[in-house]
Design goal:
Chain lengths: 245, 306
């Protein structure tokens, strides 16, 4: 892990209450998709855990939804503003666990970390299908970004205003998708339904309120088949079989 | 040029400097060994340990507050045997400073058994007894909330700790901290650690639920600093034994203030969670601040406030 200063290059709205922030700084501690960063916001005691949406040698991009005071403050950040960020936190998705065909399932802002994962899988020459679930048409985000990487994208909306009407699990029944491994990130109920529905192996990205984010406070513990695990250090990515729902 | 002297003495245990990460905010030390050389720290207080392994409380366990946080970890730990057989030896391999074993219990017998095992471990330098836990044999009243029960824990553990210094870590959730500290001193405590967390609560006004699953939890961080300074000041004037001051410390200035109030060493808790390098940075800044203030030996400021 590494604590360093990042400079805001871009902070734009991409969907209702949802923003993309591009930050310039030292990304050398980042190991891959599935990891998260801890963002320090001026005036707030604890850092905010946010998944890595995309990164390269000099930049880090995050997608965040405004849900409270901290994320509200974040969307007021301007180009040139600086933030202390701890990078290189948590375990990555295991891209080698997928043999040939990957299924990525994201709910809402949970789609964000799957983008870097999709890039990594495509770079390995694997076929990727992405199911993205939203409430309504206007919330849809990242669909084109995934298509541009070469993934097949299926959209579901709860109200049926676009794509398949219903939940991501409804898309599983309707479409004949070929996959040998899945990766999912989104609301807990969605990930639980996905894990119960799908019989191949897979991985989920868990969420928990954090104190430190780097494994020293035991604030983020979840119970798993391997015993108590820290979401921040032993996760956030867990194998499907490990999770006790 | 004469270098500032930072070394302090806690009941015969020499610390290269007064800085100690507080229990529960630095794991078992080894987790941070890859981040910086732990040997810059005067001591390390380890995660509170009980007889049995404990899962701790349900989540969410953490709530943010203005200038602080609430935790309700609920003493998650792998149990005393893992502490003694694995954690202590692992830390000693990379760390030469003072190792402080922090012990919790839900009965006098549990405190005795755990303290005895921790004291027998060659790696342990100091035993810190957290008396903020509820007594299961007494309607769940925390041991640390009455002078008599705090004294009974103290005298019980003193019998099993041999030569190793025993610090009793007191809860601030009491009406008269001084009488409890004095009762511990009279019962044989070698030192006092002050303060543990203050009982706090946050509510999610949108969902109309407490933020913490267990409803209430321990409040700490920068906001509690003045309370900690006050309690250290009061207790240091009433007792003769040394004090480890703790609560809201976030800078070298805070360390100096806490020592002027009467602390012989200073612990940093919640600040470690927002800044993993907080303890190290404070140690680095301390001599610079001392120079600014014309302090040559840190010991000269301990308890200077009358
Ligand atoms: C590993 C991980 C990755 C995440 N990735 C993303 C992401 O890519 N995009 C995104 O929009 N959100 C993500 N989240 C959720 C994000 O951390 C919260 O939405 C954010 O912390 C809310 O902050 P706030 O100040 O706006 O909310 P407030 O409710 O005001 O925050 C109060 C406190 O609660 C914590 N908190 C509140 N909600 C959550 C939550 N859902 N999870 C964890 N902590 C919470 C805050 O960090 C803060 O300490 C992730 C969470 C985790 C654990
Ligand atoms: C996440 C967390 C876990 C803690 N766990 C323990 C513990 O196991 N035993 C203990 O004696 N104190 C524990 N404490 C209390 C701290 O050691 C310290 O006394 C208190 O937090 C006040 O210091 P601070 O304001 O610097 O955090 C914990 C505190 C925090 C924030
Ligand atoms: S948040 Fe501190 S251990 Fe995970």
């Amino acid at each position: 892990m590494k604590e360093s200063i990042f400079e805001v290059e871009l902070n734009e709205k991409i969907a209702p209450r949802t923003y993309r922030i591009k930050l310039k700084g030292d990304t050398s501690a980042i190991e891959g998709s599935g990891q998260f960063v801890q963002v320090s916001l001026p005036g707030f005691f604890l850092r905010r855990p946010i998944s890595i949406h995309e990164y390269d040698g000099q930049t880090l991009t995050l997608i965040y939804r405004v849900v409270g005071e901290g994320t509200r403050m974040m969307c007021s950040l301007q180009c040139g503003d600086t933030l202390s960020i701890i990078t290189g936190l948590g375990k990555c998705f295991d891209i080698d666990a997928c043999r040939k065909d990957a299924l990525l399932i994201g709910g809402g802002v949970g789609a964000a970390p799957l983008y870097e994962l999709c890039k990594e899988l495509c770079a390995q020459g694997k076929n990727v299908t992405v199911i993205l679930g939203f409430n309504r048409k206007d919330e849809i985000m990242l669909a084109e970004d995934f298509s541009d990487l070469g993934a097949k994208v299926i959209i579901t909306t709860v109200d049926g205003s676009e794509g398949t009407k219903g939940f991501v699990t409804d898309a599983l029944s309707l479409h004949n998708i070929n996959y040998d491994y899945f990766y999912t990130c989104g609301p807990r109920v969605m990930m639980k339904a996905v894990c119960e529905r799908i019989h191949t192996g897979g991985e989920v990205s868990m969420e928990e309120r954090m104190g430190c984010g780097f494994g020293i406070c035991y604030g983020c513990t979840c119970n798993t088949t391997k015993g108590p695990q820290r979401v921040c250090k032993d996760g956030p990515v867990f194998k499907k079989e490990e999770v006790i729902w | 040029m004469v270098n500032e002297n930072l070394s302090v003495d806690l009941c015969g245990v020499k610390l290269s400097n007064p800085m100690i990460p507080a229990s529960g905010t630095f794991g078992f030390g080894i987790e941070m060994a890859d981040e910086f050389d732990l040997n810059v720290l005067g001591g390390i207080s380890l995660k509170g340990t009980t007889r049995e392994p404990r899962f701790g409380n349900p989540t969410p366990r953490i709530a943010e507050c203005r200038s602080g946080m609430i935790n309700s970890v609920g003493l998650q730990n792998p149990g005393i045997d893992v502490l003694v057989n694995e954690k202590l030896p692992a830390l000693r391999r990379v760390y030469g400073g003072a190792i402080i074993a922090n012990i919790s219990g839900f009965s006098i017998e549990e405190y005795e058994e755990c303290c005895a095992k921790a004291a027998q471990a060659p790696e342990t330098d100091i035993i810190e007894v957290n008396v903020s836990c509820p007594n299961v044999h007494n309607g769940g009243m925390a041991f640390g909330t009455s002078a008599s029960s705090a004294a009974s824990v103290t005298s019980a553990v003193k019998k099993v700790c041999g030569e190793k210094p025993v610090f009793i870590k007191l809860s601030p959730n009491v009406t008269d901290i001084v009488s409890i500290a004095k009762a511990c001193e009279d019962a044989g405590a070698d030192g006092i650690t002050l303060i543990n967390t203050l009982l706090g609560m946050r509510i999610d006004i949108q969902r109309r639920t407490p933020v913490i699953a267990n409803k209430m939890g321990g409040f700490s961080g920068q906001a509690v600093f003045p309370i900690a300074v006050r309690m250290v000041y009061q207790v240091s004037h009433a007792c003769r034994i040394p004090i480890m001051g703790c609560g809201g410390v976030a800078s070298a200035e805070d360390v100096i203030e806490m020592m002027m109030a009467g602390a012989s060493a200073v612990q940093v808790g919640a600040e470690n969670l927002r800044n993993p390098y907080a303890s190290k940075e404070i140690v680095e800044n301390l001599p610079l601040k001392m120079k600014d203030l014309g302090i040559k030996d840190i010991n000269e400021i301990i308890g200077v406030i009358e």
